[in-house]
Amino acid sequence: MNGEEIYHPGSWIEYEGITMLSDGELERYKRQIPLFGEEGQEKLKGSAIFIAGAGGLGSPVSLYLAAAGVGRLIIADNDAVDLTNLNRQILHGGRSLGERKTVSAARRLSDLNPDIEITAIDRRIDEESISGMVKGADGIVDAMDTFEVRYLLNQVAYKREIPLFHGGIRGFYGQATTIIPGETACLSCIFPHPPPAEVIPVIGATAGIIGSIQANEVLKYLLGMGELLTDRLLLWDGMRSEVDMIAVERNPGCPVCGGMKR
Predict the structure, then answer these.
(1) pLDDT band at 203 (very low <50, low <70, confident <90, very high)
(2) DSSP state, residue 83
(3) Model-level pTM?
(4) Architecture of domain 5-247
(5) Among 2-6, 90-94, 99-103, where is mean pLDDT lowest?
(6) 237-259 CB burial, b ≥16 within 10 A, e <16
């Protein structure tokens, strides 16, 4: 089923171009609507986010965005569920072993929130496929484990002028930043050279922490609330339970964003 899209439609009510909330949704979100009002919830419902990867980071990101009511999640992965995934990839369970991750993810997210739309794409993310995958998305979540694909996501984010929410993990350590094209340092500014390729050791709790930060950034961006994690690289040290912040700057000579006006 390589390349097949799994589409689970949610229940949408539109009136004069405005996405309206159903009575069931008003009840579902009653503990968060006091934070940003029905208008904010309608903004979430009218938004679409592309999530690159249904693994360790993609699991908490997609689960929390689905639970919050982001109206459409586009999630891409080209792998099957393996027993070694289950220490951290909480989208999947024992009955998903051997199943395509897109199938497992779509089923879990639709069960969590049947009022949203899930488009799950079982295809490798590459230069040929990425443009179509992110079409209509308001932002891109980097939930990958290779810098080859991360750089590609960074490039398409700048081409489409939509934000990139980066996250990375290794063992008890993690990092996150939010990139706004034309305003902030991009991924190539922060990491001009990729780290050596390796099989990355990781525990689920680290993925949960960084994925939750990424989901929080997405929600703040869509709602226009708070201070985004821009021009800052958050570093999580799980061994010491400490967070450090590193200021980052745009590189005028960056091949991706160097020519964009700020």
Answers:
(1) very high
(2) G
(3) 0.94
(4) 3-Layer(aba) Sandwich (3.40)
(5) 2-6
(6) ebeeeeeeeeebebbeebebbee
